[in-house]
Amino acid sequence: MTCNRSCGLLTGAVIGAVLAIFGGVLIPVGDNLINRAIKKDAVISNGTIAYDNWLVPGSSVYRQFWIFNVENPSDVLNFGARPKLEQRGPYTYRVRYLPKENITENPNGTISYMLPNAARFEPDMSVGTENDTITCLNLAVVAAPALYKNNFIQLLLNTWIKSSKSNMLQNRTVKEILWGYKDPFLNKVPFPLDPVLGVFYPYNGTSDGLYRVYTGKEDISKTAIIESYKNKRNLSYWEGYCDLVNGTDGASFPPFVKKNQVLRFFSSDICRSIYGVYQTSKTVKGIPLYRFTVPREAFASPIDVGDNYCFCTDQVISQNCTLAGVLDISSCKAGRPVYISLPHFLHASESILHDVEGLSPNEEEHETFLDVEPTTGFTLQFAKRLQVNLLVTPSTKIEALSKVQKPYVFPILWLNESAVIGDEKAEMFRNKVTGRVQLLGVVQMVLIIAGSVLFLAFMGSYFICRSKKLK
What we know:
single chain; alpha+beta; eleven-stranded antiparallel β-sheet; four-stranded antiparallel β-sheet
């Protein structure tokens, strides 16, 4: 009888030990099974989850615009006063709703495509209509000194500017500012040029690319990384490594993302590659995500971050490369003095911020972030925020700019392009990806804990029983 009892206790302990060991063995085995499944579905190939998510975004993408209205136009025009700005918006458009075009699978493990541009106004998500009028910079007049530095040419331009009754500021509708209008000054110029201009002109009906990205079939660690842009690895805008096209397009990254990684991505909007660093963890619609944000260092001056030296292109405006927070992309915009920054000059030098009035930068509203599902590398929520500015410079030959006191960066608008995974896609993602990972983790922990408890309980009972027998 005693033997039967002792044997039963030992058997229970052995079963508990086996369960605990099995739970421990499930960790590498289960992880290996998950890794194999993810590698299969993360490849950009027709029929995989990654391909469906890559072809058309799995959620609606919206681009919101806030346009800066000049509140003191008379003072700016007559006395060269600091502009007092008030943002008007949001004016919201749906974008990125068309599938990629000209998709071609290449023999070197890459796939190429064009990204079609289209924007559809969403009145229910906007503060007004596209016909709302804004007092803003005259894009053509302000760009003239940068495009034509010769004094004689500037005198000619001044004649056409005056005859068209143009000035440094103008009144334009939201639609005109964003998508284009026929400029009266350019219309007077007797040279063959397009008189239509706008901040994003031309946009609708155009395409971005050609992009060529790795599918991940040959090397899963290269999935979605851009192999070339417009058939080149370099942009021809910057010096050194700053000119390289690095990372993905931001919609996804190679799977198995770690918190200590730097996620690099290329944005044609700012004509450069940029990066995000881990900030915190988020849960969106039941899916655990890692939030990566573009840090202050990405727009820091070369004095503070030496790696940014090749983004400093104008020693005078940048005050010998000591200013932070703005990026001169004129070489990417056919010489037009366009400067990119974060909204409201977030992380910019104080002198840049104080050249205008009315801006209030804060990280919560104005930083760029990507919320990435770490197992698959898919970006399931993001907000890309940037500000478009023009450099305003004095000119003694162009009367419309004669009152300008000094060169300064003038904000035109800022935008927030954002998306979050839809409910239907989120449910599919939970069922096929995160649900399986979480279930396996629960099973592993249950087996380990239950096995350990059983082992300890039965072994404890066995030794108690044995000690009583010895007494």
